[in-house]
Design goal:
Arc Repressor Mutant, subunit A; 93 residues; alpha+beta; 5 helices; globular; two-stranded antiparallel sheet
């Protein structure tokens, strides 16, 4: 699955926006998005397989974050493009 296909899902895009700001565990992400933990875990699995997130173990917890600057910029650009579509603001050249 391509990175853009992964970001086409609203929940995954919201997850990636949070993960581009720092590390989170599944419980924190579920609470922040008000989405069930199993659903968050499934989305994170897909994002990890697509190479968009990395995982780090801290004791028994897994911490997730966006994989590098390119992914963070891709997420930011996807959100800016969507904002232009919704708000009617002209696109940049």
């Amino acid at each position: 699955m391509t990175a853009l296909r992964m970001l086409a899902d609203p929940t995954r895009l919201r997850l990636m926006w949070l993960l581009s700001t720092g590390e989170y565990d599944v419980g924190s992400l579920a609470a922040a998005l008000q989405v069930a933990r199993p659903a968050v875990s499934q989305h994170l699995g897909k994002l990890r397989l697509a190479g968009l997130v990395t995982t780090r173990r801290q004791g028994r917890r897994a911490l997730y974050t966006a994989r590098g600057g390119h992914v963070r910029r891709l997420v930011a650009e996807a959100l800016h493009a969507a904002d232009h579509q919704v708000s009617g603001v002209p696109e940049h050249d």
